[in-house]
Amino acid sequence: MSSDIPGQSTPTRNIPTPDPPTRDTGDMPAPRVASPADADGIVALRDDSARWMLSRGNTGQWQPGEITAADIADQAARGEWHVGEVDGEIVTAVRLIDTDPDFWGVDDRAGYVHGLMVDRRFAGHGWGEQLLAWCAPQARARGHDRLRLDCVAGNRRLREFYALQGFREVGESVLPAQFRHREVVAITLLELLLI
Predict the structure, then answer these.
(1) What is the mean pLDDT of each successive set of 10 residues along the chain, which is 195 residues long?
(2) Strand residue runs (E) in the chain
């Protein structure tokens, strides 16, 4: 037994990088590296996603207005955000980073996914699956042998979505204080080994 989370022991196994979905998924716009000028569009997509989550009773994940355009612009300036557009409007976004000490501790083997978003108008086309699958070779190209992400532990539907994409749950933690809205929130840590 081994674990990549300090103080936890979980079985390890290699999980192949998932193939793109086989159902008709439509054409997801090709991701491009975002620039600071894209910050307002990313914030708008995130706030819309947060409002949708809240409307479905998911109160622990994201809140509208909690991320500012200035925060996103700084992250975009570092090349962390990738976006896809339809008719000049940002409709997909994902943040890829090489370290995530707040959630995972220090580990340079992994690439980390945050802020995976698809405009709700394009829900059901498989773009979330495609965008997540797109992240794997990006992480591999940066020298990582695994891809990691987290989500609110109580969001079973999202955890199942990630499991269907080949991610395995490797632990739980508490959302770091600087990311909390009101209450202590348990998060699930998930990982995909890139082989």
Answers:
(1) 38 37 65 98 96 84 90 98 96 96 87 96 94 97 96 90 97 76 79 93
(2) 32-33, 81-86, 89-97, 110-118, 146-152, 168-174, 186-193
